[in-house]
Amino acid sequence: MPNLREIDFYSWENTSKEDLERTYPQEYKAWKSGDPDGLVVDGRLPLHETWSRANEVWKEIRQQKSSLQSKNVLLVCHGTLAQALLGSAFGLDATTFRKNVFSNCAMAEIVWHHDEDVAESWRWHNIL
Q1: What is the pLDDT of residues 10-40, one digit of tens each?
Q2: How many C-beta neighbours within 10 Å does residue 37 have?
Q3: Measuring CA to CA, which residue among 11, 4, 26 is closest to residue 84?
Q4: Overall pTM surpassing 0.85 (yes/no)
Q5: What are phi and psi of 61, to 5 degrees?
Q6: C-alpha distance from residue 31 to each of 2, 58, 64, 78, 102 (Å)
Q7: Per-residue b/e over 15-32, b at no fewer than 16 CB within 10 Å?
């Protein structure tokens, strides 16, 4: 699944937070506040792109799910993509970024009936 990858930061990759905050103060503030329209990197909108990929992941899983023997699917990913997967499962867009922050090793269970367009419910699982 090529879309199951963390957010792309393009030229920001491998740059310290301090350098980003100094060089791109508005964009960095947009990242920290969860503003998907204000986070522009190299002319791209990384949060919107991440949500778009999350939607594609769900489409791919739902297409394959009918042929899977199990009704359960486990996805392992980083926090930003996890937020995008959770939000997009319920038809929410990138403006919901930072509303359900995934901490390290967090796990959420999403209940999604195959014939529905969006998920029915979700809950956190405390694994620590």
Answers
A1: 999 999 999 999 999 999 999 999 999 999 9
A2: 11
A3: 4
A4: yes
A5: -65, -45
A6: 24, 24, 34, 16, 16
A7: eeeeebeeebeebbebbe
